[in-house]
Amino acid sequence: MTIDETAERVIPLPPDRVAGYAMDWRNDPEWTQGIRTAEQTGEADEGGFGIGAEVTRTAYFLGKRIDYVLRVAAYEPPQTLDMVSVAGPMPMHVTYTFTAHPRGTLARIRVRGDAGGFYRLAAPIMARKVRSSIGKDLRDLERKLLGGRHRG
């Protein structure tokens, strides 16, 4: 079964500020549901963070520890960060987009995946959980940016 879930939220800040924080992997544990750690484990084709870079995340989902590696497929700050899993329990594609909106920034997260094996049985539950999680991610992103300190 394929999972394809999207959440969006208008955040009352400019796109460069929202994207600058959200696209920085070092901030992942601060606003992304279930992520305990994130570490850049591979550099971009031209060094640093960008296309080809890899980020290893440790998360907990449905009570299970999940370690996975996302490779950056597209990086166009402040509009788009597109990542595909290259290691982990299931194929996954995560896309963050940030577009100007009259009230700030329209932030959108889309998660696509192919739930196979153990996860096939849990796919309907996973889809609901992913939808809920990415909605909470955007809420927490807004809270962090409006009320807390951030890097970058």
Key features of this structure:
alpha+beta, globular, 7 strands
β-sheet strand percentage: 35-45%
Radius of gyration: 15 Å
Secondary structural class:
alpha+beta
Enumerate the spans where pLDDT stays under 50 for 5 or more consecutive residues.
none
- What is the averaged pLDDT score? 89
Shape: globular
**Helical element count?**
4
Helix content: 25-40%
Oligomer classification: single chain
- The termini sit apart by 38 Å
Helix and strand pattern? EHHEEEEEEHH
Largest sheet: 7 strands, antiparallel
Q: Can you list the strand order of the major beta sheet?
A: 1-7-6-5-4-3-2
Count of strand segments: 7
Can you characterise this structure?
The protein has 152 residues and is an alpha+beta fold. The chain is 27% helix and 45% strand. It has a seven-stranded antiparallel sheet with strand order 1-7-6-5-4-3-2. A hairpin with a 2-residue loop joins strand 3 and strand 4. The model has no long low-confidence stretch (mean pLDDT 89).
Structure in a nutshell:
Helix content is 27%, strand content 45%.
Write the layout of secondary structure elements.
Layout: E1 2-11, H1 15-22, H2 28-31, E2 35-42, E3 54-61, E4 64-76, E5 80-87, E6 92-101, E7 104-114, H3 118-121, H4 123-147
Antiparallel strand pairs: 1-7, 2-3, 3-4, 4-5, 5-6, 6-7
